[in-house]
Amino acid sequence: MAFDAPEDLDEFRTSVRDWLEENCPPSMRTPLKDDEIVWGGTREKFKNPESKLWLERMGEQGWTAPEWPAKYGGGGLNKAQARILQQELRKIRARPALFSFGLWMFGPALLEFGNEEQKKRYIPDIVKGKTRWCQGYSEPGAGSDLAGLQTKCEDKGDHWLINGQKVWTSYADQADWIFCLVRTDKTVKHEGISFLVFDMETEGVEARPIKLISGSSPFCETFFTDVKVPKDQLVGELNAGWTIAKRLLQFERSSISAGGFGGTGGSGILPPQEYAKQHVGVDESGRVADGDLRARITEHLMYSKAFGLTVQRSTEEAKAGQEVGHTASIMKYAAAKMNQDKCELLVEALGTDGLGWDGDGFADDAKKATRGWLRSKGNSIEGGTSEINLNVVAKRVLGLREHQ
Amino acid sequence: MSFVLSEDQQMLRDTAMAFARDEMPVTHLRELRDGGANGVDAEMRGKLAELGFFGVLVPEEHDGVGLGMVAMGQIMEAQGRTIAATPLLQTAVIGASVLILGGSEAQKAEWLPKIASGEVTVAVAVDEGTHHAPLNVATEAERNGQGYTLNGAKRFVADGHHADIFIVAARTFGEAGQAHGISLFLVPNDADGLSVQALNTVDSHGAAHLTLEDVAVSEDHVVGAVDAGWEVLEPALDRGRIALAAEALGSAQAAFDMTLEYMQTRKQFGQLIGSFQSLQHRAAKMFTELELTRSCVAAALSGVDENRNDVAELASLAKARASDLIHLVSNETVQFHGGIGMTDAHDSGLYMKRARVQEALLGGASYHRDRYAKLNGF
Question: Is B296 on the interface with A (CB under 8 A)?
């Protein structure tokens, strides 16, 4: 079912529209349900069979990664074509075919730093959602100070030998492969780190879920005991993994601030002003009766609007070839604040209905909002804490210096 | 919505920035203040007119350049950078907008060329209490044979102390709080019964209280339809709010730049104060607010030019966020500078004083949050 993308953009749009009409199953044009998200990989169960079909069709076209090179299974589209595809998908309210750290983080880094053999080996399965990847970065002693990581990687001639522990490994228990930062030189800090990938089925790898305050377990502690990794699974040069790590963190931060936050609430949750109207009541002119809550909700909505406009502005500036980076670097901090404020306001507006945990007596959307509120506390920690991001802004953007 | 300037707009921006820097630096405001000029400088007004700044919104057929609000915003931002006192907001933005949106052909033909050339300055007189509340107009306009008789008082009219012409909002019907029944009148500053009390204001820009006692105006001095002045006044005020938000953004940017520079030169405990993490984080947060506000101002400016139907919402967004921004940044500027920031010799105090006026004029953050919520139905 190979898709020959017409050069002419109008023709391209028509052919995309026809293809979607024929290939996007009806239930994939409805709002995404939390339990029908497809992460791919060998453990994927596809609760809705149409989501399997949708992933297969999109993956075949390479349209899960529209701008990646066609020779690695990507869509091979240029920017203008990719934008048209995006518009047409939005128009029919199509669900994303695949959620994937491979697509968002590892793939882009591999395309930049991997060798030809590695790209051919890993990228096509990422595009098709056949391999699910997890990220082995943080360690118990290396969170914000990521470069302090200690997981030991020794050169044993015909293989690497790994010993150590990772933490906050998102969905490690569900993943097929891991991309991982390891220490290959103890005598230097940043220059002694390397970037390795390996199969989570390898002997000596163990992932244990961590239960969070929200009751869910998206994260794991991951242990490596005498794990043997083939030599050709090192990405980039030995001891030069920090450069790849930093680049990958940029992909991570921008995918988080582009809306990939946990705790946002998701489907079924109303905006805070609606809960405030229902649970606090309105005065005779239709305003939320609690003036202070109303003002704080409004402030939050205005912040969100300002955030959205800033995303729009930086996109336009980038298109016009103007210097960006300035706005990009503040977005992770701002997005975390925005989402946390929203979650706090939801719980407050719900009143005691926002204080349920499970069972009867509380509406499903209210319980979801409560769990989302707890989850949102991680927004200012994951992918670089707000403090680390403020440091980045202060030093790289504002040019303020280190303490001497 | 467009966030990237066209070539014309960029050129105007460069001109305005250079003019503010070279001709109207903060020292110029100090000179006006110390010389007792109360923010009024006729020579400077002439230079602004020569550059065409008064005619940016005025259509070409009335001798303006018709470049629109995005262009006007660049001038206002530049003026904000050096907290310059000019009649641009009241004359070139709000006054011109009232006439463009509501003026009869004769009124436009008479007044717009004079505005564009800088020959007359205008002040729009709306508020009667200490807080912006344009619906609360109580000044009475009573119909009599040939025209109207105005009675009432207006408080803290920006540029009122040197305006040639006032646009006075008065009530021809109904009562304070209602939109219907407000009408707009052109009143020359030498009209019988009008008294202008000049005010010395904290920002050294000046303003005036007006008293109207049996001021007679003729029918052809009514701008827009009788009783329906609100339909002209509200969008004109929105343009003013957006322009003022652009000005405040410029002031905040300048105060922030000044603070950043100080952080990179001032030492305490043998360290540059800019290397202290507690200050770095506050600076980074201010920068975030600046960038977010810049997007809101840009969206509102282009929203007017594109004739969008959410201009009111965008205006309140821009003005509320700009008010909060300049409040935060001006306070932090004084605090970051320490003792020197408390001295009259240093500019940070001047920015803080102007900030409070920028916040209060045309509605502060509370006013615009309330309006934003109402516009969003809650």
Answer: yes
B178: contact with A, CB 8 A cutoff:
no
Which DSSP letter does residue B261 get?
H
Distance CA A104, CA A350 (A): 34
The interface predicted TM-score (ipTM) is 0.91
- The whole model's pTM is what? 0.87
Name the average pLDDT for chain B: 97
Cβ within 8 Å, pair B370-A400: no
Banded pLDDT at A1 (limits 50, 70, 90) = very low
The beta-carbon neighbor of B274 closest among A390, A397, A401 is A401
- Partners of A280 on chain B (C-beta within 8 Å) are none
The answer to whether the CB atoms of B317 and A393 lie below 8 A apart is no
B275 touches chain A (CB under 8 A): yes
H/E element, B225? none
Indicate if A382 belongs to the active site. no
Residues 234-273 of A with CB under 8 A from B: 273
Contact A306 B321 (CB under 8 A): yes
- For residue B37, is pLDDT > 60? yes
Question: Is residue B96 within 8 Å of B108, Cβ to Cβ?
Answer: no
Angle at B283 between CA B282 and CA B286, to 5 degrees: 90
SS3 of A254, please?
A: helix
Q: What size, in residues, is chain B?
A: 378
pLDDT 10s digits, B337-353: 999 999 999 999 999 99
Alpha carbons B124 and B207: distance in angstroms, whole number: 12
Predicted confidence at residue B6, as pLDDT, reads: 94
Tell if the CB–CB gap between A309 and B299 is shorter than 8 Å: yes
Q: How confident is the model at residue A33 (pLDDT cuts 50, 70, 90)?
A: confident
Please state, for a pLDDT cut of 90, what percent of chain B lies above it: 99
pLDDT at A140: 92
CB pairs under 8 A between A and B: 128
Q: Do B3 and A317 touch (CB under 8 A)?
A: yes
**pLDDT at A264 exceeding the cut of 90:** no
Helices (H), chain B: 7-23, 26-34, 42-50, 69-81, 96-102, 105-116, 230-263, 277-305, 311-337, 348-360, 365-375
Nearest chain B residue to A286, by CA:
B378
| Closest of B155, B263, B167, B269 to residue B224, by C-alpha | B167
* Interface subset of A 314-373, CB within 8 angstroms of B: 316-317, 320, 322, 326-327, 330, 333-334
Q: A198 has which bridge partners?
A: A178
Mutation for testing the B interface, residue in A302, A319, A329, A332 having most B CBs under 10 Å: A302
Contact A402 B274 (CB under 8 A): no
Instruction: Give A383's DSSP letter.
Output: T
Instruction: Quote the CA–CA distance of B362 and B125 in Å, as a whole number.
Output: 11
Chain A residues touching residue B276 (CB < 8 angstroms)? 403
Q: CB under 8 Å, gap of 24 or more: what pairs does A189-193 form?
A: A189/A147, A189/A148, A190/A147, A190/A242, A191/A239, A191/A240, A191/A242, A192/A239, A193/A147, A193/A149, A193/A239, A193/A241, A193/A242, A193/A245
Q: Supply the Cα-derived Rg of chain B in whole angstroms.
A: 21
Residue B274 Cα, gap to closest chain A Cα (Å): 6
